[in-house]
Amino acid sequence: MKNILIIEDVEDNRELLKQFFEGEFSVFEAEDGRRGLEMAGQVRPDLILMDLSLPEIDGWHAAAALKADKHLRHIPIIAITAHAMIGDEQKALQAGCDAYITKPIDFVELEKVIDRFLERE
User: What is the pTM of this model?
Assistant: First the structure.
C-alpha cells in the first residue's frame, strides 16, 4: 500500500482527506510545516498533499526544503490551498509543488492529479 502524507493545519480538512483515502493508501498527518518536513523524512511518502498557509513553516518554504533534499526531492507534492489569486499557482509551482488544487477540494480533480503521479495497486 502506498503512503500519503497530508500536511494541513485544519483538523477538519485533514480528517476529510484521510477519510477519502481510507483503505486505499496508508495516510500520515502533520499539522504544520515543520512537523510535515520531519514526517516526510521519517515516512518517505509516495505523495504529499500540502496546504500552503501553514504554521511554523509555510507550504512554499516546506516545498522548497523538500525539493532541496536529495532523499526527498522525488516525492510529488500537490498543493491544496485556498490561495486562488492570479499568480498563486505559479508561485506554488516555483516553490517546488508538482501540482496545485484549490479549496474547496474537487475530489474528482484530486483523483486525476494523484493518478498522474501514482500507480494504484
Answer: 0.94
